Amino acid sequence: MTVSSESRKEATGTKMEVLSAKCKTRIGFWNVRTMYETGKLTQITAEMRRYNLHILGVSESRWTGSGRVKTQTRETVLYSGREDNQHHEGVAIILRKGIDKCLIEWKPINSRLITARVRGRHGNMTLIQCYAPTNDSDDEAKDTFYDQLQAEVGAAPHHDLLIVMGDMNAKVGNDNTHVERAMGRHGCGCMNENGERLVELCTMYNLVIGRTLFPHRNVHKLTWCSPNGRDSNQIDHLMINGSWRRSLLDVRARRGDVGSDHHLVVADIKMKLRSTGRKSAAHRRFDVERLQDPKLKNAFTLQVKNRFQALADMTDICEADAERRNQRWDLVRTVYQKSSETSLGLRGTKKKECITPETWKAIEERRELKKKVTSTRSERLQEKFKLQYREMNQKVKRLARTDKRAYLNNLANEAEEAARKGEQGKLYKITKTISDKFHSTNDAPVKDKEGKLLTTEREQEARWAEHFREVLNRPPPSEEADIQEAIEDLDANIAPPEKQEIITGIKSLKNRKAPGQDNLNAELFKADPELAANILQPLFTAIWEGKQVPDDWTRGVIVKIPKKGSLSDCNNWRGITLLSIPSKIMTKIIIQRISEAVDAQLRE
Fold first, then answer.
1. Where is the Endonuclease/exonuclease/phosphatase domain (predicted)?
2. How far, in Å, CA of 322 to CA of 108, rounded?
3. Which residues have a Cβ under 8 Å from the Cβ of 431 and sit 6 or more positions away?
4. Options 3.60.10.10, 2.60.40.420, 1.20.120.450, 3.30.360.10; CATH of 19-269
5. Could you tell me whether strands 124-131 and 161-167 are parallel, antiparallel, or unpaired per DSSP bridges?
6. Which of 33, 46, 386, 496 would disulfide-bridge 541, Cβ 3.0–4.6 Å?
7. For residues 460-481, b (16+ Cβ closer than 10 Å) or e, as one string?
8. With 0-12 CB in 10 A as exposed, 13-18 as middle and 19+ as buried, what is 35?
9. What is the pTM of this model?
């Protein structure tokens, strides 16, 4: 069933190629009442895909803090909320899968404002998602909100397509006398105080209220329905700067449903988005857990052996020390990477679905009831459908909570099994999932030394590079340490590493440790330590004789881990460096040789 004047094609969704020159950009905004509810975000992103939205602005998310997270279906959520752990207000911008590549910068302002800037094919777009105080709020709260909103509108790049959208709690009416440049004649109701403030803002900054420009039936204009179902208003709005007015093709309410008293509002904009061209630094890991299968383990080691033999015969090793060690390392890295990719594959990123088919069926039934409520003209039937809708909404909430309990119980059983088998890595991952550490803060914007918030990725990367350069390159101490000269030289083995030493070093490696830049885990070498030693020994010999490591070994991946305090301050983070696993094997050999020599001298 579809609502009158809403095609089935729109309701069920059409396939739309992301960033294609043949499609327009579709933006939605919605007061969802809360995202701090079991299964709510999953329902929101499902509706987002159903209506083919590229970008969705969310009001009243009720998430605390600010950050950037990925959903199970690969949407990117940028959110900004209160800092006092009170689950009130909150705004968010959700980007469809792939649109995050168009993101230039974003900035969490407070619990009522968030901004994002995306790259378009013929210009950029600045988005400001809002959640304004209600008309009954005190003047101080309204003044504060509009002062902050004016500051963000004024700071937007002059040539950008500017979109201000969200729950403005403002009625602007249909009388545009003397404000023709700010609004059209297709609004609803009578203007209230918030509406006057909104129109004044639009007049000041040459914005146009898009909802008032297009003639639609009232059912497609009204965005909010009172709890008793008797009153409806048009209080959610989208504003666009006047110079881009003709790019706005349509704005209207849709029949999306997530159990909110607000309707989803969708705007079609004649603008094509394009990628920033920057590749993500993240890479997927090899699925080393599959090495626990004896058959796969044997197939992997056989492939490593065959590849190494074939590449070794084809490769001419240069005699120069620098080239020899780099060529040897390239050979080792290529053999293990190609063999891992072919035999093991990449580790999956898909998580278990928390919502069961039974709950999805109830969600669909709730959606159908909402359509009946909005389409029927009989007051008696409308009251009947409203009652059924409220009951079904409560049922959806109960089912979602039941699903989550079952999901967590299953995880707890898996954790107990992992603890019984001594699988500490798996136990840690499950514990982290159960603790519900969902809202990541690792991607929240940081500040520079002067306290200015950095919003672009390039600025933030430069700040992190500056921070770790200062942390890791401390000036020498003012006073030199009093180090006594050794009485005699240690009788340490200085010959190139032997095969048995390499095998011992490989076996001493710990499992489930993050690899370095080469993406080679310890488990890959431990699958057959003797074979790995045969492959690594020529490399270690070249390094030993040349007295220098391969160029790749001089680079590490710094991972930042939060400490206490404000996470916008780089000093409240600590960094750990991920190094190449073969370099650790060689380091273990050197440490073992020194330890043996020192122990022998101490015994004397």
1. 30-262
2. 49
3. 415
4. 3.60.10.10
5. parallel
6. 496
7. beebbeebbeeeeeeeeeeeee
8. buried
9. 0.82
pLDDT one-digit tens code per residue, 5-49? 444 344 444 433 333 445 689 999 999 999 999 999 999 999 999
Burial of 29 (0-12, 13-18, 19+ CB in 10 A): buried
Cβ pair 269, 293 in contact under 8 A: no
In 281-423, which ranges are continuous DSSP H helix?
294-314, 321-343, 357-375, 379-421
Kindly state the tokens that stand for 346: 């990449």
Cα–Cα nearest to 539, from 526, 552, 528:
552
Q: Which of 277, 355, 342, 267 is nearest to 306 (CA)?
A: 342
d(CA 441, CA 437): 10
Q: Measure the CA–CA gap between 208 and 44, rounded to whole angstroms.
A: 28
Q: Which helix (H) or strand (E) holds 225?
A: strand 224-225
Beta strands, E only, 468-567? 557-562
**Dihedral-angle region of residue 161 (phi above 0 means left; psi in -120 to 50 means alpha; beta otherwise):** beta
Name the percent of the chain in helix, strand, coil, to the closest 5.
45, 15, 40
Three-class SS state of 404:
helix
- Which has the closest alpha carbon to 325: 85, 550, 600? 550
- Burial class for 319, CB neighbours closer than 10 Å (0-12, 13-18, 19+): exposed
Task: Give tens-digit pLDDT for 97-137.
Answer: 999 999 999 999 999 999 999 998 888 999 999 999 999 99
Report the C-alpha gap between 310 and 296 in whole angstroms: 21
Q: How far apart are CA 513 and CA 381, in angstroms?
A: 62
Rg, the chain, Cα only: 30
The domain spans of the chain are 19-269, 288-346+492-603, 357-434
Nearest to 439 by CA among 70, 103, 111, 108: 70
Partners of residue 114 on adjacent β-strands = 108, 129
